[in-house]
Every structure is written in C-alpha cells, then in structure tokens.
Amino acid sequence: MPQVHIIARSAWGARAPRDRSSVSWDARTEVVVHHSAEPAMQTVRSIQDFHMDGRGWSDIGYNFLVDDAGSAYEGRGWLVAGAHALGHNTSGIGICYIGQNDPTSAAKAAIRALYDEACDRAGRRLAAKGHRDVNSTTCPGDHLHAWVHDGMPAEGPGGDRIP
C-alpha cells in the first residue's frame, strides 16, 4: 500500500510547539478518529490557534488532520504525544477530520491511508476507534463513527475493510 502524502507543518504555517513529549511505536496501540465539529472551511492553523490560545495547550491537539479534498496535514506527527483523547494521548494517534459529520470519499480515503501507514510503521495492526469509544463525547459524529466501526472501508467495488 502506498504511503500517504502528508503536508508538513512548515507548509501550513504551523506555530512552534511550546513543548513536546515523544512516544515510542511500542506505546502506540490505537488510532482515534475525531471531527472538528466546525465548518469544513476551517484551516489547520485556526485549529492550532484555538488549541494553543483558547485551550492553553502546547500545540495543536491532533497528530494528523484531513480535509474534504483528502489532504493530510501533519499536526503533532507520528511519535509525539497528542492532546486529543483523555487517557489515550500516548497510546492513540489522533486523526481529525476537518468538518462536521459528512466527510467526503476523499477525506475518508486519507483517514484510511493514515491508519494503514500507522499500522505499517508500528509493524502491527492498531485498533481503530472513534473518539466516543474512549471518552464521553459525540465525536466523531454518527456517520464517521459508523464508518470507523464498519472497518473504514475503501470506497468503490470490493472496498477492503480492516479486520
């Protein structure tokens, strides 16, 4: 499976993090899917600004973000602890769909590609979860949550599902 193209922090104008904690691949056991719950025209930088200025976090909370065009953006990256799911920020790689509950096929394909890449890098199958599976929330919305639990099927005939 080909690796997903990830837009680097420098390309989307990320601010420098105030602090970062590294995580090993041994600690990674899951991928946690989120949605921003805001309009899809939101920018990665606006999400980072909200997390850093509005919530006082050290950086954007997610490890990766995906927009409706299927573009994947580096948030904290593969081996930096996130701030996306209480009790799962070290074990989980947080992937956020930028939008509400209606991801495009391109967005779902990018989320799935990030999941597959995470499993390849970890050298094993990681659990796929929606944010509501690990915390008391409605995130990532009913549609996206159902898709994650249906095995993140690839679109089109014979689309594969994760086991």
How is this structure best described in words?
- It is a single chain.
- The protein is an alpha/beta fold and 163 residues long.
- The chain has one domain (6-12, 31-149): 3-Layer(aba) Sandwich (Lysozyme-like).
- Helices cover 25% and strands 15% of the residues.
- The protein contains four helices and six strands; from the N terminus they run βαβαβββαβα.
- The chain has helices at 9-12, 44-54, 105-122, 142-149; strands at 6-7, 30-35, 64-66, 72-74, 92-97, 127-130.
- The chain has a six-stranded mixed β-sheet.
- The two termini are 16 Å apart.
- The model has no long low-confidence stretch (mean pLDDT 92).
- Residues 16-141 form the N-acetylmuramoyl-L-alanine amidase domain.
- It is an enzyme of class 3 (hydrolase).
